[in-house]
Amino acid sequence: MSTSTNTIETLANREYKYGFVTEIEADVVPRGLNEETVRLVSAKKNEPEFMLEWRLKAYRHWVKMEKSEGEPKWANIKHPPIDYQDIIYYSAPKPKKKLNSLDEVDPEVLRTFEKLGIPLDEQKKLSGVAVDAVFDSVSVATTFKEKLAELGIIFCSFSEAVNNHPELVEKYLGSVVPYSDNFFATLNSAVFSDGSFCYIPKGVRCPMELSTYFRINAADTGQFERTLIIAEEGSYVSYLEGCTAPMRDENQLHAAVVELIAHDNATIKYSTIQNWYPGDKDGKGGIYNFVTKRGKCLGRSSKISWTQVETGSAITWKYPSCILQGDNSVGEFYSVALTNHHQQADTGTKMIHMGKNTRSTIVAKGISAGYGQNTYRGLVKILKSSTGARNYTQCDSLLIGDKCGAHTFPYIEVKNSTARMEHEASTSKIGDDQIFYCNQRGISKEDAVNLIVNGFCKEVFRNLPMEFAVEAQKLLSISLEGSIG
Amino acid sequence: MLEINNLHVKVGNQKILKGVNLKVNAGEVHSIMGPNGSGKSTLAQVLAGREGYEVTAGEVIYEGKNLLEMPPEERACAGVFLAFQYPVEIPGVNNAYFLKAGLNAIRKYQGLEELDAMDFLPLVKEKMKALEIDELLLNRSVNEGFSGGEKKRNEVFQMSVLEPKLAILDETDSGLDIDALRIVANGVNALRSPDRAIIVVTHYQRLLNYIIPDYIHVLVDGRIVKSGGKELALELENKGYAWVEAEIHTAAPANA
Lengths: 485, 256
Known about the structure:
The complex is a heterodimer.
Chain A: H1 3-10, E1 11-12, E2 26-28, H2 35-44, H3 49-67, E3 91-93, H4 107-115, E4 129-135, E5 138-142, H5 145-149, E6 154-157, H6 158-164, H7 166-172, H8 183-191, E7 196-200, E8 209-215, E9 226-231, E10 236-244, E11 251-254, E12 257-262, E13 267-274, E14 286-297, E15 303-310, E16 315-318, E17 321-324, E18 330-339, E19 344-353, E20 359-368, E21 373-382, E22 390-399, E23 405-414, E24 420-429, H9 432-440, H10 445-461, H11 466-480, E25 482-483
Parallel strand pairs in A: 4-8, 7-9, 8-10, 9-12, 10-13, 11-14, 12-14, 13-15, 14-16, 14-17, 15-18, 16-19, 17-19, 18-20, 19-21, 20-22, 21-23, 22-24
Antiparallel strand pairs in A: 2-3, 4-5, 6-7
Chain B: E1 2-11, E2 14-24, E3 29-33, H1 40-48, E4 54-62, E5 65-66, H2 72-77, E6 80-83, E7 90-94, H3 95-109, H4 117-130, E8 141-142, H5 148-162, E9 166-170, H6 178-191, E10 197-202, E11 215-220, E12 223-228, H7 231-239, H8 241-251
Parallel strand pairs in B: 3-10, 3-11, 6-9, 9-10
Antiparallel strand pairs in B: 1-2, 1-4, 4-5, 7-8, 11-12
Family (chain A): Belongs to the iron-sulfur cluster assembly SufBD family.
Protein name (chain A): Fe-S cluster assembly protein SufB
Domain SUF system FeS cluster assembly SufBD core (chain A): 214-456
């Protein structure tokens, strides 16, 4: 009798359109993880001694963690045990000579990014967006590098930064997410292969969006990338990351770490559109997206704003957080997480208030369809030192169909009585009457659901850079296909 | 335009419509009146294609096509409009955006070019003015936080933009004060035309002071028991529905 439930069940079954595989020769390290793997990865990247030492410290810590508690168990997710010895920790497209221009990038790789809508060659570059393209374990190209360098902005792959700006890397690496932080961050610290590095000098407003596009291609490979963004006093940068992977029946691990540092009066805006392969409609395959993202508002009146649209991955486990250390600093978290079919997400944020008059805003929107399980988990912590702190939290869940779940776990710890906290939460369902009302105005069931879902996410989309807000809307409607019958 | 033959409808185990016959031609305004629970709203919902109503017998022909076989959005695209008795709230969805999506879906179905915001806004603003609707309403979420009167006016506003061929108004007068009633009625009257038909479902006679129907039908216990011209409304107002009920009971013994 309920049309929308049937409707909704059939709406979510469009093919994942980024599921192709690029045939390419790759340089891989042997399967499995030991100290030798770590040394090999470091050697392949010609890293200075301090990096290898750091990696080894992390590796040794990880071995201890694995023996004692293993993976974190508190998250509301389920998956079969991961065999860490059955993963390939490094895979790079050959030839592996140093790239000086795009002409030397394997045309297959360029074609891959072209197919994904990320043209890298000179003529077709996306205007107004500088892109760092990461393919499996390495960065293959970075656009607009020279133009940005004129302003003193460093935007390059992490490997290049390690070699060309070791003093910056050594100073900031692990300063927000220490190598011992958590199981997956520690693993990343030991074996991370590449990622993006941005440095915005004092007083510079970065004139274009910086973005990194992550692509997993090789089978049985884990992707462990690391991003480090440093915004000096009074600077501004808006950064965006996107990601896709081929469709495979096996689960693949993606364990990334992102560290942001904002000095006095600096602003970092970090947006994610996460579209890893989510697995098929029966829950087979898909990426395990176990990511640690954290920003430190180190300086006075600094600001870090996270916006994420999470539609992909079999499992998402991530909590982009802000440490509000500087007085008057501001942290923001805007999130849309969608789980359809058998996808699981346990995501949210942590806002740690240390400085005086620090403010944070959390707007989290969870959408569950099919058999999807969606959990919001968030911590707002006001330390004793943080006088006059404010937080506003809003968690909304939208259910489509009757086989999915929405869960909310807000944690609030207040040690200073001057704090002001607000928390609002709601759970709603797309009602048959809403769908019928849309139908009666000529709007199809599928469009009606998209309309309602997009309306639900509007507050978050508003925070995305314009070009990507449109993409996010499209992505959401694709991810919902088959959720309506 | 519309022909309803011997329509029987059940909700769950309860028979609501028990053989409704009605013929509506283009250019006509029909009013369906009746006491509470007589099946008026059910008839409106069934015509619009709402789920949960089981048609056990009879047929509905709309412009030569079997209406009951068409999904609700196709009926809407083919020109059937229902002004809801209880308009639905859709949080987060902008009223103007919603209406534009509907209008363009209908235009697409009819092979017309879709309107962009530049063409859409002037059209909408003109209609709003006629219905004395605050333009701010456009930027609010569909029906969310609207007063009862605003909701009803919004329905008539949508109708005036979508320009249906067959408009069904389900108790649009309920919850309206006298000024709003007049404005809504003006909106409906502006839509009267030789190629359009309107069905006004109402409990009270007062709306019919403003929208003067060509025909009035009285629905009692799932059947149309009396039909007549506009003067029937006044007779009902004076004598009440009990009068019609008494009349049918003496004419034919109850068989239900």
